[in-house]
């Protein structure tokens, strides 16, 4: 059986989840090999350090974030992006409210509850 989301994701019609205080996310599209997730942060919200076996590439759509990827810290703002290799520890602190667009390969089955 193939795992896939719907063809179109309309923001107003897509469910929000609250994975941590000051953070909410929408799953914007996926199949078994790829997933895109919109993550909105309030100022001061913390994406705690974690790691997963997925490759991750993220685009900073708005806001300002301090990223920590495997001990290397950088400040990123709108228009920037970053890559996280599989099993690499990473996390962030939101310095100015904003939105990240995460992409994962393969799909984050844990986000889907499967």
UniProtKB/TrEMBL annotation:
**CDD domains in the cross-refs:** cupin_KdgF
**Which Pfam families does this entry report, sorted A to Z?**
Cupin_2 (PF07883)
Q: Which PANTHER family match?
A: H2HPP ISOMERASE
Domain Cupin type-2 residue range list: 39-94
Species annotation: Xylanibacter caecicola
Official protein name in the record: Cupin domain-containing protein
Query: InterPro entries recorded for this chain?
Result: Bacilysin_H2HPP_isomerase, Cupin_2, KdgF, RmlC-like_jellyroll, RmlC_Cupin_sf
